[in-house]
Write a structure and sequence with these properties.
about 500 residues; mainly beta; 5-stranded antiparallel β-sheet; 1 helix; 43 strands
C-alpha cells in the first residue's frame, strides 16, 4: 500500500480563491447562495425568494428601492412608472410585511417627468431618502418627492447631465450630497447648494461614501479604453485646490466605493466589461483598499470572457453587495456577490429564476435586514425573500460549494480516492446534499461532475462512501469536489482519504 493522506475541511469563511490550487483549506473555488461569511465552520443556505405582488404590480416596473417613513411606520419604497400615465416616473410603498400585498401609490405619486427621457439620463435607477423626502435623477434634473406631499420635478435643474452616482447622507454633518458628472452638490435640511465642489473635467464621479469626517469621492476617467480611477478625500468644505487628499487607485474603473470597517474599499472593473476589453485575456474584478496615497490590490476575481459584468450594488452589514457576471471555467457565476472588509468575495445570493445570463437580468437590488428585494427580467417582476411558510420549499434552487483542487502535495503522483464523508447539521425534512467530483482533464472548461452519493434523511448528520454504486472510487492526479445543498441542508464538513499509487518510472 502507498502512503495515505486524510483531508478534513471544516472551515469555509476564507472567500473565493481565483487560483483553485492555492493551499488554503478555508477558501473555495466558488460558493453560490450560501451565507459563507456569517459562520466560520458551516455553510448556511440562503432562504428562497418568491414573487412580490401580482401581474398588476409588474406594470409599475419598480427597479429602485429605499426605506423611508410612511405614516407611523417605516416602509420599503420603490421607484417605477405610473399607472394613470405609464410614461411618467412614480413612487410606491409596500403595503406590509405579508407576501400577498403589493405596491401602494400615495397621493400625488406620479410626476410629470417622462420615465424614459428624450435626452440625458433614462429609466431612473436611483431612489434616495433624506429627511422626509425622496430623490431621483431624470434627464437633467434632480427630482424631489415629499412624503405626504407632492413632487418637485425641477428641484435642481442641472445642465448636460451625462452621469450620476448614488447620493450620500454624511453622518458627521447630517447633510445629503448629490453627484452628477464631475460636480458635487448638497442639501442641508432643505437648503440646496449646487456645485459646491468641482472636480477635473476629464473625470466623472461614479461612487462615494462617508469616510470618517471626509467624503470619499470615487472618480473614473471618461475614456473607455484604458480607464483609471482616483478617490478624493474631501473635508466637505475646501475647494479642489485644497482638497485633503487624492488616492491613486490605478488602472481600472471603480464600480463601488465603500467604507467597510474603516477600510476604504473599491470594487473595480479591469478590462472585464466588453467595451473596455482590449487585452488578450478577458480581464478581472479587482478589489483594492486605500493605503496612504495608493489603492492596494487585496483580491482579484478572474474571468475567461468579457461581459456586461456590473449592474447594481448596495452596502449593508459592512459588505458590498454587487451584481456581477464573472464567467470562469464554463461556470456562469452570475448573481449578487458579497465583498467583505478583508476583500474576500463570494457569490452570495442567486435569484431562483435567474441562474445564468440566459434566464434574464437583475434590474435592481435592495436588502432590508435579511430580506432581499430583487427586480429582474426587464418586465417589472420582483422577488422578495420568503418570510412566511416553508422557507426552503424550492425543489430546484441549489446552494453550491466547489472546493479547491487537491493534488496530495505532488501533482505528478497518481492518487486513489479511498473514502469520503459529508457532514451536516441534522437534515431538515426533505433536505439533502449531493456530493460530486471531477478530476484531471475535466478540471478546465466545462468539465463534467460525477455523483458519489446523496446525503438525505431527516436528522441525518453524516454520510460516507468507499465506492459509487459498487464501482471503485477514482484514481487521479488532481481532484475537486462539489456539494449541492437543497431545501436548507447546512454543511459542516468534508473529509476524504487518498492513497499514493507508486507508478512513476523512477
Amino acid at each position: 500500500m502507498g502512503k495515505s493522506k486524510i483531508n478534513l475541511i471544516t472551515s469555509f469563511n476564507g472567500g473565493l480563491a481565483s487560483d483553485r490550487r492555492v493551499n488554503q483549506a478555508n477558501k473555495f473555488a466558488v460558493t453560490k447562495h450560501f451565507d459563507a461569511f456569517r459562520y466560520k465552520h458551516k455553510l448556511v443556505p440562503h432562504l428562497e425568494t418568491v414573487p412580490f405582488g401580482n401581474a398588476d404590480q409588474e406594470a409599475k416596473n419598480v427597479t429602485a428601492f429605499t426605506v423611508a417613513t410612511q405614516g407611523a411606520s417605516t416602509a420599503v419604497w420603490g421607484l417605477g412608472k405610473g399607472v394613470v400615465d405609464d410614461t411618467k416616473i412614480a413612487v410606491y410603498y409596500a403595503s406590509g410585511e405579508g407576501l400577498a400585498g403589493g405596491w401602494i401609490g400615495p397621493s400625488n405619486n406620479e410626476s410629470t417627468i417622462d420615465y424614459l427621457g428624450a435626452s440625458g439620463l433614462e429609466s431612473p435607477k436611483i431612489l434616495f431618502t433624506y429627511k422626509d423626502k425622496l430623490y431621483t435623477w431624470a434627464n437633467d434634473a434632480l427630482l424631489e418627492f415629499t412624503i405626504g406631499g407632492a413632487w418637485d420635478n425641477s428641484y435642481y435643474n442641472a445642465s448636460s447631465v451625462t452621469s450620476v452616482a448614488e447620493p450620500v447622507h454624511h453622518p458627521a454633518d447630517d447633510i445629503a450630497y448629490f453627484f452628477h458628472n464631475n460636480f458635487v452638490s448638497k442639501d442641508n435640511n432643505g437648503t440646496f447648494s449646487a456645485k459646491v465642489l468641482t472636480l477635473p473635467s476629464n473625470l466623472k464621479i461614479v461612487s462615494s461614501c462617508a469616510y470618517g469626517n471626509y467624503l470619499a469621492i470615487g472618480c473614473v476617467t471618461k475614456d473607455s479604453i484604458d480607464q483609471k480611477s482616483t478617490v478624493f478625500l474631501w473635508d466637505r468644505d475646501s475647494s479642489l485646490t485644497t482638497v485633503s487628499q487624492q488616492i491613486d487607485f490605478g488602472k481600472g474603473a471603480i464600480k463601488k466605493l465603500a467604507n467597510l470597517n474603516g477600510r476604504l474599499t473599491a470594487v473595480m472593473d479591469y478590462h472585464l466589461v466588453s467595451a473596455t476589453n482590449t487585452g488578450v485575456d478577458s480581464g478581472s474584478v479587482r478589489i483594492k483598499q486605500a493605503n496612504g496615497d495608493k489603492g492596494i490590490l487585496v483580491n482579484e476575481i478572474y474571468s475567461d470572457m468579457s461581459s456586461n459584468a456590473f449592474t447594481y450594488s448596495i452596502v449593508d452589514d459592512e459588505k458590498i453587495y454587487i451584481v456581477m457576471y464573472v464567467k470562469l471555467n464554463g461556470d456562469e457565476r452570475y448573481g449578487i456577490w458579497a465583498i467583505d472588509s478583508n476583500g474576500n468575495a463570494t457569490l452570495d445570493f442567486i435569484e431562483g429564476t435567474i441562474t445564468d445570463v440566459a434566464d434574464g437580468n437583475y434590474n435592481g437590488i435592495f436588502k432590508a435586514g435579511n430580506v432581499w428585494w430583487i427586480a429582474h427580467s426587464n418586465d417589472g417582476s420582483i422577488e422578495r425573500t420568503r418570510t412566511t411558510g416553508t422557507p426552503y420549499s424550492s425543489t430546484t434552487l441549489k446552494s453550491i460549494y466547489e472546493s479547491l483542487i487537491f493534488d496530495g502535495g505532488d501533482i505528478t503522483k497518481t492518487k486513489k480516492l479511498v473514502g469520503i464523508t459529508i457532514m451536516t447539521e441534522a437534515l431538515p425534512a426533505n433536505g439533502s446534499v449531493v456530493l460530486q467530483y471531477r478530476i484531471d482533464e475535466d478540471l478546465d472548461g466545462a468539465g463534467s461532475w460525477t455523483t458519489i452519493l446523496t446525503h438525505s434523511g431527516t436528522d441525518k448528520i453524516r454520510s460516507s462512501a468507499i465506492n459509487i454504486s459498487g464501482a471503485t472510487l477514482p484514481q487521479h492526479k488532481e481532484i475537486q469536489f462539489r456539494l449541492e445543498s437543497l431545501r436548507g441542508a447546512v454543511i459542516t464538513g468534508l473529509k476524504f482519504k487518498t492513497e499514493i499509487i507508486e507508478d512513476d518510472l523512477y
